[in-house]
Predict the structure.
Amino acid sequence: MKKVVDQTVREQAISIERSFIVQAPAGSGKTALLTQRYLALLSICAQPENILAITFTRKAAAEMKLRILQALKLAKSLTAEPQEDYLKATWHLAKKALEQDSLMGWNLLVNPSRLKVKTIDGFCSGLVRQLPILSDFSGHMSISENANAFYYQAAENTVLLLHEEEYASLLEPLYQHLDGDMGKMVRLIVNMLSTRLNWQPIINNPKYHDCVEFSWEIWLQKRVMLLAKAIEPWRNVLSPLWQFSCNQLVSNPSNTKDFKTVDWDSFSKKGWPDTDLRDLPIWKIMAKWLLTADGGWRKRVDKNLGFPSEGKDANDIKLFKEKKQQMMAFHSSRIENSDAENLRKILIDFTSYPIPQFDDEQRQLLVSLIDTLKLAQAQLVLGFAEKGELDFSEIANRADRALGEAEQPTDLSLRLDYQIQHILVDEFQDTSQGQKNLLQKLTFGWMPEDGRTLFLVGDPMQSIYRFRAADVSIFIDCWQNKLLGDVPVTPLQLSCNFRSQENIVNWVNDAFVKIFPTCNDLQYSAVEYSASTAMRPALEHQAVEVFLQAASDDKKEALWIIEHIKNIQTDDSEETIALLVRSRTHLSTIAQLLREQNILFEAIDIEPLSQRPVIQDLLSLTHALLDSSDRIHWLALLRGPFCGLDLQDLTRLIEHQSLCIPQLLCEQQSVAVLSDEGKQRVHKIQTLIKKWLLISSTKPLVYWIESAWLYLGGPATTDEQGLIDVATFFDALNRHNQQPNSDFSLAEFSASLEKLYAAPEIHQGKPIYLMTMHKSKGLEFDHVFLPGLGRATRCYQGALLEWLDGRSEGGEEEILLSPIKGKGADAENEFYQVIVNVKKQQEVFETQRLLYVACTRAIKKIYFSGALTEGKDAPISSSLLSQLWPILSVHLDDTTTELEENTKASELIMSPTPENYFTRLSQDYFAVDTLPNLIEPVLNSNQNDLANMKDEVSLEFSWSNDMSRIIGIVAHQFFQYLAEFNSVHQITSLLTDENSVDEYIEQSSAWLMQQFEKKGGASQQCQTAMIKLRRILKSFLLNEKGRWILSTEHQDAKNEWALSFRPYESKEHQQEENLIKHVVIDRSFVDNRQRRWIIDYKTGDNQGGDLQTFLDSEFSRYRPQLENYALALSKIDHRPIMLGLYYPVIEQWIEWQWQPLSPYPA
């Protein structure tokens, strides 16, 4: 490893007497630095709660907390200092922290919850819960992570106010401006509500919209001064040419066809314009006079620009020629001049700048728009109150309210001011304006000499979350002004890259210094490039490989990628590989080819949940059961795998029939026309109709949809992967309709599913990772492929209200507002277009940063691939390839024929999709009158409430709501996760003592609490439930028998193994439908003596009395249940079967061997 060139800076960052803002580029060890700073602060604090660390994701919070605890454990267990520099420094810091821990009696390794490492959302939630009255937060409210349904409902309710006299006059101007398009109005309001944290301070403060023209005047005045300064070096050349041109156009008005409405006479009298805003029209015309329509310097001038060729006499002709030559000399000399390039960009902006004067209609429209948004906010708050839910933005709003104003803080604010002495912020570049305001309130009144510190860490080059309201200008402003609120911060720059090999670091440096803007710019959110120094040595191979095509061919590109993947895996199967894309759709062809080549891959948030066949079947079932007249979904249900009618039977059933399908199925004469097999197949559906469509359920929708799916044999139509997706579906359905007879919108539910993604496929080996570039942030891979670079990406479309906010060079606030343009009014709203143009440029700069993030994930090599549009010599301007084109264009000729020349590629032939692919259950599956003695899988659910039932699953379920039952459900779910996770990652090998187990459970506490509430647990019971859950889980993980149950040495291990079977063989019982038993086995495996184990977890406790008496009673109670499980398994597994009951709370174990005698009824 090379010398750490920024070591002095890193040591300075640990200085706990000062506040810092640190720019930490990709791979620079940002989390390690935060960990060291936190440890250093622990050594001087009176309480660990004096330190607050804020991150933006749960993953980042968990990683930081884990690093801190690992450092403390290492310092406790290791007596001699480590040799490696970073570990040595961390060890010394942790030693001092442990000394303070011992002195103050914190016992952090036993009580890690005292380390306050929070997500920003989690911190805000904690604030509003501490002051519920002031923040309007009642204890029963829950947080909705996908609040789109609330936004739509609020938007629709707002638009409906058009029909109420009291509000119609407020909404009408905006409604008319949108040409009476209510649908568009709703969509635009929805988009605004999702970003309301950004615009609420603007519309709620009259100073911004009452003085909107004045704000524009100030802003445009500064731009005029900026242009005057930029053009000053050429004033002596241009001024006489401008005067000459104006004079000629006044003398020959017929030559002014390009400037028909220009008052050239007044321009001629004025001459060279001043920096006064009144001269803005002259500057606008001068910009068009110097540039072509597409923004380039003019290559020719003529009479239309005031440079005629013909004159009255030879002197005129000579003069005209001389002036034209001077003008052309100016243009030709500008092409390679960097200062002139800056001038050109400013002039381009000026061509679209408005004259800062709103007409009456524009003023009225702006007022209407602000009133509309205020009404929409109020409707949203009402919607939240009605459903008892809040989104994260509302939580942030109420947290802000709970803290009060800086000059008038609340008691909570004063208490926090006393408690919190040090704040560390991770990923500061992703801070929003609302989050910045929160930090300013928390640090209000802090002085450099009072010992309180602020530590801000981030990388503006990795700011890629504008769509989540992240504003990189906050980082830039803080860096440049060395100040956040009242707190002075010292800028520090890290430069070492510990991730990538030297060739990659050098390539990234060379490329992105050309791609990124040359300087920071607050207005445009532009970030200049900061170079890194590689700490890893260079590898022998080149840093990048490129495959470019003159015309797009997705298959060729996919083949090129597959070939390289196979070569990598041949050389080293342990190396990690990732395919990163801008849009999920860019992976479809590659994913198909990977499947056909049997290459394992894990698609992370790529495939929409609603596109999975098992979910489409579930949606059809849900639609059909909720609407008997929905012919399309009833036909899909009958044709799908649950029933599996062939096309001939479907035609016979509905031909010449107008009745709804459920009615047809209930009429004997309609069913009589079906084939014998068809009659068998519809039997289950007929039973379902009788039991469900003819009764009114008293239970939430999720229970009877799920039980119907189970009854129809849904689990047998999918695999383990599909069952995970099914659990997600039912979890989403439960969130949308938790109470019986409550309003339920199937359209809203279907729309919410579009926001969810299928779970990644489960693999034992190392898969290829497929994900978006955004999702890859914070990760690293040996090899990174960036396919589909030539594809167009969606450009910024504009919003209902456009605004620009920020700070000028003098520090004053700048807020520009403009309502959306109306239909056919593209050229009429220059205010709107100016702001949209700025935001489009912000988007371009963020695209450059997204590419930087993607490239810096690579440790060893980067692979670029993309294509031009056929017949074009440059990529689409909105594509990622257009940003890389100056660097990658040299590879075009080298790679267009590469694949054809490579013989290996010919082996990769994509096989055709099988025709007539049709999956359905066998006709006698679950048909009670002819049911053979079959064992069928029913449900291996991860998060499904019904999957936790251990006894018969029937069409009706009765659930008790006591806390113990819910604790048992959550514990079983966690046991399943432990067993499955342990089989892949061998987690029990890491949990070797009480401290490590406590740490692991603490890290899982947020998830446990979430699951407890999801399963129906009351909020006020959470703390009690968590105490009991911690006791159960800790005992399980520390007990020798528990660790043996989780052991990875067992064969054919199953968790939550669901089976259907018939316990009795006698023919007289075969017509009784209730003899079909559905069970779920907690844990089953084959031990090293080739015995099949069936284990049932019991989370109960011995409530006093003799322990042996309790165990005897439990054995008698549960023996019949486990004996029936054994009976079921004995039909497919002929090994000896052992049965066990495990009680982790009391650390007791009951086991016995099953004997194939007469079964006990379950």
User: Anything to note?
Assistant: The domain at 609-754 is CATH 1.10.486.10 (PCRA; domain 4). Residues 959 and 965 are 9 Å apart (CA to CA). The first strand starts at residue 20 and ends at 23. The chain is about 45% helix and 10% strand.
